[in-house]
From TrEMBL:
Pfam families: GFO_IDH_MocA (PF01408), GFO_IDH_MocA_C3 (PF22725). InterPro entries: Gfo/Idh/MocA-like_OxRdtase_N, Gfo/Idh/MocA_Oxidoreductase, GFO_IDH_MocA-like_dom, NAD(P)-bd_dom_sf. This is Predicted dehydrogenase. GO terms for molecular function: nucleotide binding. Residues 3-115 form the Gfo/Idh/MocA-like oxidoreductase N-terminal domain. It comes from Geodermatophilus sabuli. It comes from the Bacteria. Residues 139-228 form the GFO/IDH/MocA-like oxidoreductase domain.
Length: 319
């Protein structure tokens, strides 16, 4: 079976998904669109597929699914258009720059019963599954999660109302893994170092303390003032075992010694493959995060961002 897909948003991550999808034997990339015609045109020309004027036309072209690779502020309308057309979609993280749009999308998806997938690709790393097994959830007592890096070049990234801020846009990847490895967070307190750059209102840094339902505690920190990416990952302490996880490495410490593990999975490819498999009627890979599950992570990220912004204790909402 050939799966016919369309792609919206021909930016950095849209180009990555389009190249991955175009390389699958069982996928036909029907077209790409972007409000900047030159962006759609360049990607379409590279892959030898049509540039399409807008999502409506893509949906009318008869697609089995669309990949929505738009910036955080642009969510809502594309997803609701796909739902109205009855077309399953893959959507990049975060679900939105804020909670209300993400909730509206999740409600519409649930009512329609449509298959969805999201760009939380770290969940496809075999090292994440290994970490989950060695930690055994309940024994986790402490988590330290970090995203320390640069200020990305996109203008939208620098404005909190456009990107959601660094916690919501970037640290969401590792906050998602906090949920996988240590369970749900119930409450967050935090503080932020305000921006020292005129063109950016995203804070220079944030720091938060997390309280877990299990009784465990954690810290979450971000910074975007560094000259190069420095740390994105999490350290976990559990009774008798420690775990240090990044996108490219896993270190497990026990009384027997330290084990270093390198992922054998290309998670960025695996996330696309997994959703194509769903669309083809094949079994669902356990790492695939649908919109409903992504909404839980978005609730956590929004709570961490709000706690840092306001200094108040924030309860993590539930979908
Ligand atoms: N999962 C990952 O590893 C990963 C990596 C990078 C980015 N992302 C996410 O992907 C999203 C896009 O990031 P990016 O780096 O590709 O950004 P980008 O700025 O490079 O590209 C965004 C593209 O979307 C287009 N666009 C803007 N508004 C639109 C709208 N209303 N409708 C349709 N298209 C619109 C822009 O013209 C641009 O071509 C972000 O949410 C980001 O968090 C995920």
């Amino acid at each position: 079976m050939t799966v016919r897909v369309g792609l919206v948003g021909a930016g950095a991550v849209g180009a990555r998904h389009a190249r991955t999808l175009a390389a699958f034997d069982d996928v036909e990339l029907v077209g790409v669109c972007d409000p900047v015609p030159a962006a759609a045109g360049a990607l379409a020309a590279e892959l030898g597929v049509p540039a399409v004027a807008d999502l409506d036309r893509l949906l009318r072209a008869g697609v089995d699914a669309v990949w929505l690779c738009v910036p955080p502020f642009a969510h809502g309308d594309p997803e609701l258009a796909a739902v109205r057309a009855g077309v399953p979609f893959f959507v990049e993280k975060p679900l939105a720059a804020d909670l209300p749009v993400a909730r509206r999308v999740a409600d519409a998806v649930a009512a329609a019963g449509l298959p969805t997938a999201t760009g939380y690709h770290w969940r496809h790393l075999d090292t994440v599954e290994r970490a989950r097994q060695v930690l055994g959830g309940d024994r986790v007592r402490l988590v330290d999660v970090r995203w320390w890096g640069t200020t990305p070049p996109a203008a939208w990234w620098r404005r909190e109302d456009r990107s959601g801020g660094q916690v919501v846009e970037q640290a969401t990847h590792v906050l998602d893994l906090v949920r996988v490895l240590a369970g749900e967070v119930t409450e967050v307190v935090g503080a932020a170092a305000p921006s020292t750059r005129e063109a950016r209102d995203v804070p220079d840094a944030t720091a938060a303390v997390l309280r877990f339902r299990s009784g465990a505690v954690g810290t979450a920190s971000t910074s975007c003032v560094l000259p190069l990416p420095t740390a994105a990952g999490l350290d976990v302490a559990a009774a008798g075992v420690s775990v240090a996880l990044t996108e490219t490495s896993l270190r497990v410490g026990t009384a027997e010694g330290v084990e270093e593990v390198i992922p054998t999975v290309d998670a960025r490819r695996a996330v696309d493959r997994a959703f194509v498999d769903v669309l083809s009627g094949r079994p669902r890979a356990p790492g695939l995060v649908d919109v409903a599950e992504a909404l839980r992570t978005h609730h956590l990220a929004c709570a961490v961002a709000e706690a840092a912004r306001t200094g108040a204790a924030v309860r993590v909402g539930e979908p």
